[in-house]
Amino acid sequence: MTASNKPAFNKADFQKAAEELCRYGRILYGNNWSPATSSNYSVRLNDDVCALTSSGKHKGELTPEDILAVNMQGEPLSEGRPSAETGLHTQLYRRDHHIGAVLHTHSPTVVLLSQIWKDDALSMTGWELQKAFAGETTHEGTVTFPIFPNDQDIDRLAGQVEQHMQQHGQGHAYLIRGHGVYTWGKDLAECYRHLEAIEHLLGYQLELLKIRQP
User: Fold this and answer.
1) What is the pTM of this model?
2) To 10 degrees, the CA torsion angle through 188, 189, 192, 197?
3) Which stretch is the leader sequence (predicted)?
4) Cα(98)–Cα(103) distance, integer angstroms
């Protein structure tokens, strides 16, 4: 990609996004949802560019220099090395222009439950906290989180996610077995609200499994 055809982005918007990603990184690390250098976070800057955490950075110690800009094909537009999982972020941004932020975390609850849950999806009904998700207005509805096998081939995994969303709808989040969760929202605040709801809802499910175990 030459300099002449690189997509442009506003430097002030990038700096603001970088600072916010660092702030949420500290929060998520403090919650024990992003241990060590795991996880990755991003914010849409425009239709062609997003700000993304660089690969291999400790999420509790992020600085703005640890954030880079990438295009929607995952190619870097600023200094830094994109996460290996960049394609899972850009797949979401490409399919829905309303998505403004994506958070991927590795909390103990999500990693454990995704590993032991036998079905390819986890559906929940009857929990008041379901209303934390954008567009959900009642506990009587059902929220479903697909579960995909872990895969080091990110392009292949992103293709599976896209195919599932085309067939079953976009939903609010998905899990990767033994790995973590991806969720999204119109901005970081909404995205974090979704993530917090997921943590509690899956925590409820994990406790139910313990209670019901013979």
Assistant:
1) 0.95
2) -150
3) none
4) 15
Q: Which two tokens stand for residue 147?
A: 């579960």
Residue 58 labelled as part of a binding site: no
The DSSP call for residue 200 is H
The Cα–Cα gap between 84 and 86 comes to 6
Q: DSSP alpha helices (H): ranges in the chain?
A: 11-30, 86-95, 108-116, 154-168, 188-212
- Is 179 marked as binding a ligand? no
- 125 membership: H or E segment, kind and range: strand 121-125
| Tokens linked to 168 | 């079953």
Q: Give the residues across from 103 on adjacent strands.
A: 41, 183
The CA-atom distances, in angstroms, between 71 and each of 100, 103, 105 are: 14, 17, 22
Residue 143 CA to residue 131 CA, distance in Å, equals: 10
pLDDT in tens, the chain (214 residues): 445 478 999 999 999 999 999 999 999 999 999 998 999 999 999 999 999 999 999 999 999 999 999 999 999 999 999 989 999 999 999 999 999 999 999 999 999 999 999 999 999 999 999 999 999 999 999 999 999 999 999 999 999 999 999 999 999 999 999 999 999 999 999 999 999 999 999 999 999 999 987 6
Task: Find tokens 């976070």 and name the residue.
Answer: 41
